[in-house]
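Hi! If you just cloned this repository, the fastest way to understand the data is to look at a raw example. We've pasted two of them here, unedited. The first protein comes first, obviously.
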Amino acid sequence: MKKYSTLLFLFLVAFVMMFPMAWMLLVSLKQNPEQFNTFKDTLLSPFTFANYTETLVSDAFDRYFLNSILVAIAVTSGNVLFCYLSGYALARKNVFGSKIIMASILGVLIIPQQVIMIPLYRMMVEFHWINSYLALIVPWLVSPFGIFLVKQFIAGLPQEIESAARLDGASEWYVVFRIVMPLCKPVLTVLAIYIFMANWNSFLYPFLFTNDAEYRTVPVGLAFYIGKQSIDWGHLMAGASISALPVLVAFTLFQRQIISGLTAGALKE
């Protein structure tokens, strides 16, 4: 009886989590879904892919999609590299003021993004980076959360492997990139997926830093389907469905690494 109760509970949780996505897909496959008053009318109306085709060929959506891909990959790559190097240095090297640095990193984590919005915008203006990829990439190339995550993971790794490699004549860069980095694959995968998702779904700063359609990302582009008087639900949901594909594909391909990274270190003797 307990087993069936657990399965029923998990089914209900899965249903609650999946319903918004199912509703998004349903609405995206309906022509002018705002005309329907009930769920029954929406469900029984004819299905069509017109919203998808119209979204892909209108309003430079393909440009928004490519911008999001470019920015997300650049930011994710930068975070994996810089957070790993910073975390390794804090975990393995006697860095002067390392405790103050870690306290500063933890302090940055509790600062809301809205607090740095105005100073960061003024900085982008001073650098003449408004309406450029630099404003969308450079400020986010390293994450305090990523540094903390990688540092804690490396601190739990045995140092004997690195010592043995140095005794065999391995250089410091060889130890960093060929010995320790492969051991950090689980946590780096989790970090990459987290940063990719956060950057892919980011709206506030891409909206502030871009005025031209040439540099808009998908979340900013989708916002223009929301007008002052009405919302184009069909095209908005079609665009949202398309924008969700990279995240779903990434999670499907790397779900084992994500789970192993999240559970790594959970059991210790």
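Ok, and the second one:
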Amino acid sequence: MLSVQAKAAGAVLLAAALFGTSATSLALLTPGAPGPSVAAMRLLVGAAGLVAFVLVRGGGGDLRACWRRPSVWVMGAAVAGYQALFFMGTARAGVAIGTLISLAAAPFLAGILGWILREGAPGWTWVVSTVIAVIGLTLLVSTNLNVDEPVGMLYSLGAGACYAVYTVVGVRLSREGNGASVVLAAAFAVGALFLLPAAVTSTWWFSLAGIVEVLWLGLGATTLAYLLFGVGLKVLQPGHIATLNLFEPVVATVLGVVVLGESLAVAGWWGTFLVLGALALLGITESRGRAAVPSNESRDRS
């Protein structure tokens, strides 16, 4: 019988798999779409989907209560910051190094911040699995590294920090009796508000392919993905969630090879196996652990 933590880890991995479809869908449907506008439209539609999910379940009052909490606005700003800084980093430093810095920094920063805010010490198994996963991620993108753009690298590091902030704040809010879906809907709506100007600066989505892409990125790779992600917020430590999310670049790479016909060097395949092994190690640990479910979970509406 799987533990609550193991099921939560599985949900986060499924969320990461959905995140990993973004680049391939963009390449297939709207290859020329500008990054900032894509991020803004994704967040706008994704937030609308999350808010609709909460409202259908009768959580309108909880949603309004969340918007009155300053921490939700901090989380929303971090959500918007991650989207913007990630694309700015990859545009300046390159997709490979930008992705590497953002996703590699996030688990360590989330684990440390979560520990500082007393959301639980991530433990040595997390340290080992995260180090292995980051090494694997480095090998995965090693053939396309470009380290000559320090500003872009700083943007990417900022994206990782924003990811850590909204993960840790989301964990704290969901463990204080707020439904995870309510917290995510409130924060993503705030993030969409911040990025709204970028959403209307381009017309790339004024086509059938563009509409399909927006709907997939918004409802599939954001609304559905973050509802799954929210399962992890209730019971997993922030650092563990961020490490499990390293499954995203593995899925993106495999889809690139299988669907787009891209090639992957031997080092890239070794990197893929290392990331998968690290995630398996962390997943086994979660399956054996006792779920750290807060005592007020019965009041959680998600």
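That's it. A detail worth noticing about the second one: The chain has 13 helices and no strands.
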